[in-house]
Write a structure and sequence with these properties.
The longest helix has about 30 residues. Helices cover about 40% and strands about 25% of the residues. By secondary structure, the protein is an alpha+beta fold. It has two domains: about 290 residues, Distorted Sandwich (Beta-galactosidase, Chain A, domain 5); about 250 residues, no CATH class. The chain contains 15 helices and 21 strands. The strands form three sheets. Strands 6, 7, 8, 9, 10, 11, 12, 13, 14, 15, 16, 17, 18 and 19 form a 14-stranded antiparallel beta sheet that branches. Strands 1-2-3-4-5 form a five-stranded antiparallel beta sheet. A two-stranded antiparallel ribbon has the order 20-21.
């Protein structure tokens, strides 16, 4: 830097220093501010302490004190429970501090048989903020007096102004909680809710659990829900937007908050990724929403439980969209075709693995006409090998001419070399849909089949004891069998296909399954199980069709009959032939220019 720049920086620094010194509060102002804070806290604690009364089902959890106060107020834990869930509430803040799902266990190796518990991290925050004058009243700092009547919990606290604030929770149904917050405070701005949650690790495949956990929300004017990025840290700011609900969701479980007599407004949602290898935290979720200023009673519904499609669909507000079945056509296939099919078959068959195999069989039977058409086309191409062999010899030094003349032969005998692609194209939407379905559907969670102990996660047939980059620390047998069966299927399905025009494809198609070994090795074993048995049924169909249905002599006669029929002008093959001819002419011109 030159001298002028140095002088400039010195002047800026001196100006900032002088400004801070001139505007710093005096000792008297600091002391006065502290006395006001202590007085407000003391009033809140004394009022709550005096109103407190012994309750049943209450256990002492933690204690809180206020500076300068000789009295001690205890924070207590009260519980509501039914046959499927137990929800714990802390009287300090009047918030949920744990929800134990009685019918679900953790699936990770460390705590495999421990019950699933949501919202149990002490660092979590569920805090309603009421701006009053120049200060904020936070429910997290208030001590509430609990009263339990059946499955209804009412908690009352006194604000610093002396006005009451009430939070009421009523456990209805299996996992539904009716929640209301009532106050009579005159606020100077819109109240808000700050909801921060550290998600726990619950599943065997922590990486996929992290990538399927996020914050969901639904704008009132939108037909579908939205969410923060699942695979990286993200921040969505919906300033001024009205919202119907928000949800903090693990891969298979969620806590959702829905507005009933009002709309949330101005949501800000954030997800923060964690280092899952070096911490017990899965992911950090942060949500902040505004509440209407002119409402004194906020009626809400909470869902605290598993991501079961029917449970969430019953709310009739799009909450079922938090299950990550996918978007567009693939999500539709999963929600309204694949899921109901699995549920229907599961009503008759208890083993989810057998259900997968049965569904594969049904799909393969429905698609068999397309497979037959593909194999029939390949058989006709195989019957034309003598004619194609002549062309290879005649134009052995001109590959483009060889391709063009081969297309003429195909057209002459009415054979389409591309008709074999149709069955594969027809199956692609199902494959892509199932890719999202198995790790998202709680139906397969902890469901064993053969050597796999959880069809929603990978099957670790062999644990290596060390990690291979892009592969993992285990070997999935379903993935390995899929790769082997794919090689066998590729051999049988392309054995009669002429690849002389592009010999590299002959080897690439065998290399692809090996490339995907690392990708599918840590994926849901339900999918790799599906892919393996799908290949197995395909191979059996191909062998059966070629051995017992096709007759080479009959196919040759069909070709001769087809050759005598008048040919239509145009069509895809004609356009492809014209394109090859144009390419040949361009190549010839380039060759002349080089000479």
């Amino acid at each position: 830097m030159d001298r002028n720049q140095i002088i400039g920086f010195i002047l800026i620094f001196a100006t900032l220093l002088a400004w801070n010194m001139l505007n710093a509060p005096s000792k008297e102002e600091l002391a006065k501010s502290q006395r006001i804070k202590d007085s407000l806290a003391l009033v809140s604690v004394q009022d709550t302490f005096q109103a407190a009364a012994p309750q049943t089902l209450i256990s002492i959890d933690t204690a809180g004190t206020v500076a300068g106060d000789t009295n001690r107020v205890q924070a207590q834990v009260v519980s509501l429970e039914n046959e499927v869930v137990k929800i714990d509430f802390n009287t300090k803040g009047g918030k949920i501090v744990g929800a134990t799902l009685k019918n679900y266990q953790r699936s990770n190796d460390k705590n495999y048989d421990e019950k699933v518990k949501l919202a149990g991290d002490p660092r979590n925050r569920f805090d309603f903020i009421f701006p009053v004058g120049n200060a904020n009243i936070n429910t997290e700092s208030l001590f509430f007096t609990p009263k339990i009547t059946g499955n209804k919990l009412e908690m009352v606290a006194t604000m610093p102004s002396g006005k009451a604030i009430t939070q009421t929770y009523e456990l209805k149904g299996d996992y539904k909680v009716d929640f209301s917050l009532t106050h009579s405070e005159i606020t100077s701005a819109a109240p808000s809710l700050v909801w921060n949650e550290i998600l726990p690790k619950l599943e065997k495949s922590t990486l996929y659990e992290q990538n399927y956990s996020t914050v969901y929300y639904k704008e009132s004017e939108e037909g579908s829900a939205d969410y923060c990025n699942c695979t990286s840290s993200d921040l969505d700011d919906l300033a001024g937007k009205q919202l119907d609900w928000l949800s903090h969701s693990n891969q298979f479980f969620n806590i959702s908050l829905m507005a009933n007599n009002f709309k949330f407004k101005g949501g800000k949602f954030e997800t923060v990724m964690t280092d899952i290898k070096n911490t017990e935290d899965l992911k950090s979720l942060k949500s902040t929403v505004e509440l209407p200023q002119d409402v004194k009673r906020y009626d809400m519904s909470m869902y605290v439980g598993p991501n079961v499609f029917e449970n969430l669909k019953a709310y009739d507000n799009g909450l079922e969209q938090i299950i990550p079945f996918g978007s567009s056509i693939f999500g539709t296939i999963n929600r309204y075709i694949v899921r109901p099919s699995f549920d229907f078959l599961s009503g008759f068959i208890s083993s989810k693995g057998i259900v997968i195999i049965l569904l594969i069989f049904i799909i393969k039977m429905l698609l068999y006409p397309l497979l037959y058409k593909m194999l029939h086309s390949q058989a006709k191409m195989a019957a034309l090998k003598p004619e194609l062999a002549v062309l290879k010899t005649k134009y052995k030094d001109d590959l483009q001419k060889q391709q063009m003349e081969s297309m003429k032969v195909y057209q002459e005998f009415g054979v389409s070399p591309l008709s074999g692609c149709l069955p594969m194209l027809m199956q692609m939407p199902i494959w892509i849909a199932l890719y999202r379905f198995f790790p998202a559907s709680i139906t397969f969670r902890r469901e064993p089949f053969l050597w796999a102990d959880d069809l929603s996660s990978y099957d670790s047939f062999i644990k290596l004891g060390f990690e291979i980059p892009f592969f993992g620390a285990h070997i999935s047998l379903f993935t390995l069998l899929w790769a082997i069966s794919t090689v066998i299927y590729t051999y049988y399905s392309t054995k009669d296909v002429d690849m002389s025009a592009n010999p590299a494809m002959k080897y690439v198609q065998y290399f692809m399954p090996i490339m995907f070994l690392g990708f599918f090795n840590s994926y849901a074993s339900g999918l790799t199980c599906y892919m393996f048995f799908s290949n197995l049924i395909n191979i059996l169909q191909i062998i059966f069709t070629k051995k017992f249905i096709f007759d080479d002599e009959k196919i040759r006669k069909e070709l001769e009959v087809q050759k005598l029929k008048p040919k239509k002008v145009g069509g895809f093959q004609s356009r492809l032939q014209d394109a090859l001819k144009q390419q040949q002419e361009i190549t010839a011109q380039k060759a002349k220019q080089k000479k």
